[in-house]
Amino acid sequence: MEILRCEGVRKIYGDRDNPVIALDGINLTVDKGEFVAILGTSGSGKSTLLHILGSVDRPTEGKVYVDGTDLSQLNQTQAAIFRRRKVGLVYQFYNLIPTLTVRKNILLPLSLDKKKPDPGYFEEIVSTLGIGEKLEALPHQLSGGQQQRVAIARSLIYRPALLLADEPTGNLDQRNSKEVVDMLKLSNRNLEQTILLITHDEKVAMEAERIMVLEDGRIVSDERRR
Predict the structure, then answer these.
(1) Tens-digit pLDDT profile for residues 94-144
(2) Which residues contact 94 (CB under 8 A, 6 or more apart)?
(3) CATH fold of 2-224, please?
(4) What is the DSSP letter of 200?
(5) Residue 163, helix vs strand vs coil
(6) For residues 116 and 88, is the Cβ–Cβ distance under 8 A?
(7) DSSP alpha helices (H): ranges in 61-118?
(8) Which of the chain's ends, N or C, has fewer CB atoms near its CB within 10 Å?
């Protein structure tokens, strides 16, 4: 089942006389349950692509569909609500609220909509990510790897159609980087979560089942590894 589709996506910055082409005709599809890595160096366009897929930004040309929704039809408010409910975002900086406990940070997206969590699913997430004993701790009491696990848990709590991870290991040492990638793989396998991982690290990308390589705003290869 298709969960993501891009059709001819282009992103151009600057004016007509001095255009900067960040994305140049991106066509891709991702099926439900896939774990895909988009590999590219700095300036390749991978973060621009992630922002467009997450409805944070809009393409200059082309269409993006997430779970059947045409993102171009959403206004700013609708895009923010869609992003909260349908797209999980994980960045290299954890963006946790320092005054809230781990539990409240995880449940924040639901709290904003005044919705109650599914206790069974909440337990499954925190168990899968190994943070069940840290629920009453504050972010500053956690290691970097543990904070990133909390950020992943928060991104999963709404059962998003798509989880977008932008360099999630970029701020971590080697041991914590491996732990976070392992947590993403567990989320993909145990929770059947569709994941798109943006990275410049080939070793991290190799953990995915499918690797796309982005160069100069274009996908130059798309390899399914298993």
Answers:
(1) 889 999 999 999 999 999 999 999 999 999 889 888 899 999 999 999 988
(2) 139, 144, 147, 148, 150, 151
(3) Rossmann fold (3.40.50)
(4) S
(5) strand
(6) no
(7) 76-86, 102-112
(8) C
Nearest CA to 197 out of 36, 34, 61 is that of 36
How big is the chain, counted in residues?
226
φ, ψ of residue 161 to 5 degrees: the values are -65, -30
Residue burial 23-60, b: 16+ Cβ < 10 Å; e: rest: bbebebebeeebbbbbbbeeebbbbbbbbbbbbebbbe
Residue ranges of alpha helices (H) inside the chain are 46-53, 76-86, 102-112, 119-129, 144-156, 174-190, 202-205
Amino acid at 137: A
pTM reported for the whole predicted model: 0.86
Tell me whether residue 68 is exposed, middle or buried, using C-beta atoms within 10 angstroms of its C-beta: 0 to 12, 13 to 18, 19 or more: exposed
Q: What is the largest CA-CA distance in the chain?
A: 57
Sheet holding 69-70, edge to edge: 20-31, 2-13, 61-66, 69-70
Q: Helices 174-190 and 144-156: crossing angle, nearest 10°?
A: 20
Tell me how far CA of residue 137 lies from CA of 111, 130, 156, 183, 185, in angstroms.
19, 14, 19, 20, 25
**43-96 tens-digit pLDDT:** 899 989 999 999 989 999 999 999 999 998 999 999 999 988 899 888 878 889
Residue 21 tokens, joined: 């082409």
